[in-house]
Amino acid sequence: MSVKKTVLLVMSAALLGGCAMQHARPDLTPPSQQQIHAKLAAQLQKNNVQVVQVGQTFRIILSSDLLFEPNSANIKNAYVNTVMPMIAQFIRAYDKPSVSVTAYSADGSNTAVLLALTNRQAQVISSELWLNNINARLLSAQGKANQDSISSNQTPHGRYANNRVEIQFRYEVAGVM
User: Fold this and answer.
1) What is the value of pTM for the model shown?
2) In terms of Cα–Cα distance, which of 77, 89, 88, 166 is closest to 127?
3) Residues 43-82: pLDDT tens digits?
4) S-S: 107 plus which of 86, 87, 153, 164, CB 3.0-4.6 Å?
5) With contact defined as beta carbons under 8 Å apart, do 102 and 64 qualify?
6) How many other C-beta atoms are found inside a 10 Å radius of the C-beta of residue 74?
7) How far are the Cα atoms of 7, 10, 15, 53, 125 from residue 3, in angstroms, in the given order?
């Protein structure tokens, strides 16, 4: 075999081997926005945060019992340092959301006290979102005390479910009004 044919065969084998190697490489395509959003939602759910999507609206539901010190608007440090930045990152991943923060409580004897407490809780969460780079002009906060219960207050589980903060936003889709 001539030197020319040998070189040609070696080069062909190298090219084919390179093609085979190329297919063996992991996919280096960047993740889609949808994959990023799904990953963020999964991280939140691992931290006892519910993420519910209906159409273009997301509701992020946090237990007040886990989020705040008992009967207060003092947010626990674990949430300030881990969960709130994740929630803000999740919200920032969408275009121009307006964000409403609503705090709820289980039934209590003094609705006025519960209303003041839930208003303050909603304001605290709104402030934490602002501190995590959510535009303050997009934020609204409201306490609803024991209105809009989602479960019976007759059981500990029901009271736990009703003591919650809901962060809701609707995102815009480019070209859709």
Assistant:
1) 0.76
2) 88
3) 888 888 999 999 889 999 999 999 999 889 999 998 889 9
4) 153
5) no
6) 13
7) 6, 10, 18, 66, 75
Classify burial at 128, counting beta carbons within 10 Å of its beta carbon; exposed 0-12, middle 13-18, buried 19 or more: buried
With beta carbons less than 8 A apart as the criterion, state whether 102 and 122 touch.
yes
DSSP secondary structure, 103-142, as one string:
EE----S-HHHHHHHHHHHHHHHHHHHHHTT--GGGEEEE
Token reading at 159: 């009271």
| CA neighbours closer than 13 Å in the CB half-sphere of residue 18 | 6
Give the Cβ contact number of residue 6 at 10 Å.
Answer: 10
Single-letter amino acid, residue 166: E
pLDDT tens-digit map of 126-144: 999 999 999 999 999 999 9
Q: Which single residue is written with the structure tokens 């509701």?
A: 59
Mean pLDDT, all residues of the chain: 80
First-to-last alpha carbon distance for the chain, in angstroms, is: 71
Rounded distance, CA 92 to CA 40, Å? 11
